[in-house]
Amino acid sequence: MTSTLTIVAVPGPAAPPALSVLSVLARASSPTERIAGGWLRPVGGPMVAELRLARWTERIAGDRPERVAEILAEHGLSIGQWRSGLGDVEPVAGEPLPDWAQDALTLVGTIGQAETIGQAETIGQAETIDRLLVPHPVPRLREIAGVTLPEWVDGEQPWRFYPGFCDWMCLAAEDVEEWAAPAPISSTARRDLVLDLARRQLVVSGPVLMEAAARRPAEDLLFARDPRTDWVDLWTTYPVLGRLLATVWRQWRESTAEMCHRIAADLPTICPGTEVSTFEMSAGDQHCGGRGVARLRLSDGTSIFLKPRTDGLHRALGAVLATVDGAGDPLGLSPSLSLPEVVERDGYMWVREAPTGDSADATDRTDGGLDSGISAYFRRAGALLRVLQALGSTDLHHENFIPTAHLPMLVDLETVVAPGPMRIAPPDDVVTERLSDSPGPTSMVTSVIAGGPGRSTVDIGALAGPSQGLTPYVVRTLVQGADGPELQSARALTLNGRALPSRDGHPVGLRGYEQQLIDGFADVQQRLELLVDSDYLPDLEPEPAVRLVARPTSTYARLLLQSTVPAVLMDGVDREFVLEQLYRATGTAPAGLIGCEVQALRELDIPLFTIPFSRTDLISDRGVALTDAMTEAPDSRTRRRLRAVTDRSSHVDDLRANLFVMDPDERAVAGDEHSGTEHPAVDRHEPVRLLLDRAIEIGDGTLAWIGLEHDPNRNRWNYGRMGPGLTGQAGIALALATVSAGMSPSTNAIGGQPLSRSDCAAAARAALLGCVRRIGNGDLGPADGFNGPAGVLYATAVAAALLDDPTLLDAARMLVVPSLRAARRKRPSMVIGGRAGAIFALLQLPSDDAVADALTELADLRDDITGVDPPDRWSRSLPSRAFGAALAARRLARTRGGPADLPALPAPDGAGDRIAWATQYPASGADVHTPSTDGLWTLLDDAHLERARSRLPGAGRSDAGHSAVGRLMSRRARTGRWAAPLSAPDSVLLSPIHGIAALAVLLTPAGPDIPIVRALT
Fold it and tell me: Could you tell me if 616 and 727 lie in one domain?
């Protein structure tokens, strides 16, 4: 049931607004408003517009000025029109004003109208504000700041800025009394609605107010004497602030009146006999004119959520869960257990809060000492994961679940299914399609947020944790400054584990229960295969709508933050330039999409796009329809995915790899407990055949692989498409090239299995050309060290020499400039990086003018020589920054001055250093280019097999290494896998985790006995 809402107009100011205020507001207008004219006309000369145009061009188009025409075409403007919108303007008397300007004048006019505001006799004391005569209690600071208030701040003190907001809050209180009159809303809850206005206004005005208050003397508090004059002064300096406050005012009025109406219409029937005790507003992002999820705490102790739009996806997911749960013994996935209760209305919906608490069966223990209730919880979680993965769900991080007694309940279903790619985007290649049916995109197991190189990461996966960490995202935080509280930007802290089960009120992590998760996952996989011909999805009416996340929400949040800092509030053009950064994506999004994003952000909303379930149109929250923007409707794609569950048999392998990524240090084991003395012979070429078998042809003549890859500069593992660098695709290609170069030309088969020299060479060539192409397309990986362009150059140049391939040599030369660019960045690196890595790579090329010039530029290595201990033991499989720099300097000196001028090498520190050393020098230390076996066993000892060595304290280094190899081989014979379940992947040992390591392994006598493959699926 719906009805038309009537918003009662706020009375205008007692006197006509001064023209000076309107002139101030004119400066808050956007470029498109200035182009449209109407109430605005240009003033001043063209110089201001020209300077702004140059600044915009540099900021948006960068070093590609030819992009200007393309970007302006996306705006629908010519260069002349855009220039005219960047100049200064003044108001035209008598012309109609836009809503935001009229609202701003209303806000100014109401300041000081409340007769209850009196002057304080004692200015500067905390209790002064509390004695102001107002009809409602003065808010305490804790009421305004909420849970974000630091402990060192007295939350019970009066909110010091209240005199500047009290007139607006008094008007808001009158409106709320009228809107809430027919609704079961308590007086406390009505006060919450009024405070919500103040909080919204403080979000956009807080930085300006903090700066202004800090500049005032102690005896002259901001807003204490003359709030109207103080506000006009602030708006004169920051005109856009007035616009933002007016936008918040209108959004609050419309959304609050709408919510009160819906409560009055629905709550008596949905929750009879209750009233709203308190509100928690904006429990999520705001869309569609400041509308967000509201939590209503009811008088009976329960809670219900009011969501400002309905998507209907609970009906689609519920049908699939019911079918899977009924295909055998119940798994506990029925919609009543795995989904919250939803009451749909026309355009919005109510969602009951599900009870949380300890997992069931608290006292029963399994034979292994595991809690049976927790085991059942994770088994159901694995079953739910397989269903969601099959549907193509994305972005289901820990905040989208709540832990019930039986399983993690999914409460935010916006992205539980998805459409096909945008038509303007390149079609999904086979690698992307393959990865879309793995646990990674769901974010349910692990979803790492990584900042720049050298920064720690935080995992927001639904089953990660429990732990807390700093995200790369910046938020405004109150800190204790020398002169009192200050508002500063700081990285946001997040606490994960909110989807984990609990015991005695504390979350229980996944560690130790991985097999239960895998068992539930595998059970549902079998059921999906049996149900492959079933019709999971009946006709759904009304039609569900699927949310499309056009960009990460963090990108929008960052732009909103940047667009409200004081520096950009001085002119509407300055703020618009912040939002204009989105137009850098012109050409990669459907026409009109970026304009919708900018419009939403201009009005302080997070952009929202949806796709009707059976259509390919993209609908913005501003009502704009981008017709046929997607390649496939969500309905069609979901049905196709459910029919394809039998295409691959390695789904569980994907899950195991994701579990390793979650916590590699805890899940790494040095083989199993078998300590036999036999060392079975291993076919050197078996892993090579596996590499060739797992290669994915991506349709352009190049290859790709999916597997585990270590990023030492971010101290993390990734599972997905291998990066182009040496710890990824280039390293595999270099290993294949090395094998090919060592094979007899007449070799066609090994051990009865076909494996030709030409096959290895062709695969290496295709993989390396693909790496070079990816670097050219900007896919640099961690381009701060020897794993970016320089590493690909190194691998390609060495492979070109091994295979005598001029095409690869030409491709390697193409990477000289990208390698220089990566070296100049000088990002923090724990391993060989920057200039040292680039020099080491360039020295693999035949000398020419380009190489000589590049080496000359990179000759100064001082920035790279400082040693930094790697943050994890996996990074020690790579040459350290100090050793790599010295090694590169030595190689450079050899090419220029001969052995007499060679600088001394530091002692190798760690397996990576020894591998690099072994590749260049034998154990005797003679300065010849011959690999050494010693470096290989050092790698086995130090990089991965510390525990194996500790079990054999009396054995020599080589004996420990041989024993470890034997243990690894026996595990391989027993499991049929190079990587045992939940153990470290073989890539940690020897595989081309670095091109130097690949050469060392394959050129040493022990090479035939050691597997060189990654944990590839």
Answer: no
Asked if the structure places residue 591 within a domain, the reply is: no
| Pairwise CA distance, residues 779 & 2, whole Å | 50
The answer to whether 754 and 738 have CB atoms below 8 angstroms apart is no
- pLDDT at position 635: 94
Closest alpha carbon to 601 in 619, 629, 621, 586: 621
Please tell me the total count of domains within the chain.
3
Per-residue pLDDT at 497 exceeds 50: yes
Instruction: Return d(Cα 517, Cα 510) in angstroms, integer.
Output: 9
Q: Tell me, what DSSP letter sits at residue 743?
A: S
Residue 126 contacts residue 232 (beta carbons within 8 Å): no
Q: Note whether 830 and 786 are same-domain residues.
A: yes
pLDDT digit string, tens, across residues 741-775:
767 666 555 444 567 788 889 999 999 999 999 99
Structure tokens at 616: 């390919």
Looking at the structure, tell me whether residues 442 and 317 fall in a common domain: yes
Give me 739's structure tokens. 């094998």
At residue 995 the predicted structure's pLDDT band, cuts being 50, 70 and 90, is very low
What SS3 class is residue 170?
Answer: helix
Q: How many CB atoms lie within 10 A of CB 151?
A: 5
Any bridge partners for residue 718, and if so which?
709
Looking at the fold, whether 451 and 491 belong to one and the same domain comes out as yes
Which helix (H) or strand (E) segment holds residue 89: the answer is strand 89-91
Q: Is residue 918 part of a domain?
A: yes
Both 841 and 932 in a single domain?
A: yes
Return the residue matching tokens 């006799």. 121
Can you name the residues that pair with 408 across neighbouring β-strands?
A: 403
Burial of 8 (0-12, 13-18, 19+ CB in 10 A): exposed
Contacts of 378 (CB under 8 A, 6+ apart): 463, 501, 510, 513, 516, 517, 520
Give me the domain span that covers residue 532. Answer: 309-362+370-429+437-550+607-635
- Between 46 and 663, residue with greater pLDDT: 46
